[in-house]
Amino acid sequence: IPGVNQILQQQKEKPKLHEHEDENKRKHRELQESRKTLPIYRFREDLINAIREHQVLIIEGETGSGKTTQLTQYLYEEGFCEADIEEGDEDEDDDDNEINLPGVKKKTKKKMMIGCTQPRRVAAMSVAARVAEEMNVKLGREVGYSIRFEDCSSDRTVIKYMTDGMLLREFLGEPDLASYSVLIVDEAHERTLHTDILFGLVKDIARFRPKLKLLISSATLDADKFSQFFDDAPIFRIPGRRFPVDIYYTKAPEADYIDAAVVTVLQIHVTQPLGDILVFLTGQEEIESANEMLLERTRRLGSKIKELIVLPIYSTLPSDMQIKIFEPAPPGARKVILATNIAETSLTIDGIVFVIDPGFCKQKTYNARNGMEALTITPISKASANQRAGRAGRVAPGKCFRLYTAWAYQHELDENAIPEIQRTNLGNVVLLLKSLGINDLVNFDYMDPPPMETLRLAFEQLYALGALNHKVELTKLGRRMAEFPLDPMLSKTILASETYKCSSEILTIVSMLSVNNSIFFRPKDKMLLADTARQAFFAPGGDHLTLLNVYNQWKDTNYSTQWCFENFIQFRSMNRARQVRDQLEALMERVEIEIQSNPADTVGIRKSICAGFFYHTTKFSKNGMYKTVRHQQTVLIHPNSCLFDQIPRYVIYFELVLTTKEYMRQVIEIENEWLRETAPHFYKTKKLDDDESVKKMPKVLGKIKAELERNYS
Ligand code: ADP
Ligand code: MG
């Protein structure tokens, strides 16, 4: 990760000379001073007392008050990392340097950790880097982070930031989380699926680990709900300081909110006094096009305007670029930050005075009736809109420009967002909980239960994949699948590659799929060239094989940057895929699968994919349209696909994107006969031509359904 390396590098390069040491000391002192200006600082003692007194505490405070960066440090400074006598270690010797003399029993004193979860990977990394800086330690040592496919922590780590999903996975290796003395479930109001599941699990371990401290921290108004869930745990409210924010609405709805946002930025820039601007967009694509539009229009205005520094921030942005958003604008210039939802509560950027809120975010939606999952651009909730506006009033009175009407705010926005658990596929979580030995998922302690249909569908899918048996118990295959921090369909694909002796190719494909459509680079002024370059990688059989082709050619150049540049390939995404691949390869040992390469056997490769993704089989119907085999849903091959103008009879897709039409992204061609071979639990006949080809699910699933119905009625 470039940003982390950069920090490590800077720290390595710290000169030993006295004057520079003074410089470092000065900087450190300044940081310590700035810590004292945060709203949470005044409550330090009260907070610590409350934490000593209560096992579970709900902490509510305005975004930016210092919860995420300060709580962990306070706890560390107050000795909450000292191993507890009750929990094993009685060694009071404070000496950290161990001497390992022969015959002398090695004394180790392992400190306990303070863990703090974040819903977003970027937040986990960025906050860890900040705290390491404040504590003047190297990131990855005393202060570390852990996100999927990247563990930047060590034996010395005492403060660990991690995504909620990673803490969930830690239960697999350590069911009582004995290494932690404090767990902070941060950003609880975001109500991500993983956070919601964590609630149930940590509540449970807190019961049999009385010394464990549990802090639930949240930005907004859900504190009472959290308190209720945690057996009426007390709420500690940190009063924020907040300046008034004037809110402006548009008179009529905006047809193109990106364009409207760009125009608003420029209007603010030319008419308003200095102060930075924060614009909320829904994702990387929108941010990049707004970025381009702003650069072009400011270039045209030339020196007639003050300097405008445009900075994007989204989850896949490399961390050296992420750090830039925190740097103050030079005197006389204005910063405009184009951000996803991440800037709503997870990251606080000082100096924002203007907020532009188009009123949308990207959300996962799940149709439990047909099991289709898609990312869609959805209107935000009122709670989100208010959070966003609040970002303008942290340092001075601010202004928030909502690119929607006051009427729409009043009548069209929901009060609160729907928790993710109620709008997502639960396959992954069900598999994980089953691996933890939690069998009764119907009566699990949910803050808000998932819809019955979704839970049932998760069981059904896992059964079809072979991860659960007909009694809905975890199978050996299921246990092996749970080793991978991946969607069950991807894990199954990897495990199936053992049969077809192509694990090396499948690992590459899975890694490339996991970097999310950011492989090919398509600049606006060179679209044709970029498309030609992309088409040169097309491989017969489908897009998965095209991705494999890209990766292998890149590998043959010894992972060259230049090669990527020449071929319109995003080097950073490739690097990430490589990193993911390394991590997955390391996990292959755990499931005892040999790495075998069989690049010529594209049938074996495609059969492996089929074994994981048979649910996504579609059959050609007419006029370039496909119908899903399971629900006869009409879908189309995405125009970027290498199979776009080939129209094979059967294809399997990786994901659906919903724009004006329902498109399949990343498709491969398969043979009808493979389905029965690779998914015997699911397809009963050799041919898919009759509608009765899908097997009936076993009786026990019917029973579960009845039980679910009883529970939910
Ligand atoms: P909260 O969790 O209550 O929203 P934080 O602890 O995240 O608050 O933020 C406290 C302060 O630390 C903010 O003023 C923010 O600007 C600063 N801060 C946090 N992360 C960084 C960073 N990576 N670089 C610079 N400043 C940061
Ligand atoms: Mg925070």
TrEMBL record:
Biased composition (Basic and acidic residues): 11-32
Keyword terms, alphabetized: ATP-binding, Helicase, Hydrolase, mRNA processing, mRNA splicing, Nucleotide-binding, Nucleus
Reactions performed catalytically: ATP + H2O = ADP + phosphate + H(+)
Origin superkingdom: Eukaryota
Domain (Helicase ATP-binding) ranges: 48-239
GO MF entry, a single one: hydrolase activity
Cellular component terms per the entry's GO annotation: catalytic step 2 spliceosome; U2-type catalytic step 1 spliceosome
GO terms of biological process kind: mRNA processing; RNA splicing
Stretches for region Disordered: 10-32
Main location: nucleus
Transmembrane segments: none
Keyword Nucleus included in the entry's annotation: yes
Protein localization: Nucleus
Sequence ranges assigned to domain Helicase C-terminal in this UniProt record: 264-437
EC number(s) stated in the UniProt entry for this protein: 3.6.4.13
Protein name (Swiss-Prot/TrEMBL): RNA helicase
Taxonomic source organism: Adineta steineri
Lineage: Eukaryota, Metazoa, Spiralia, Gnathifera, Rotifera
Range of the intact protein held here: 222 to 934 of 934
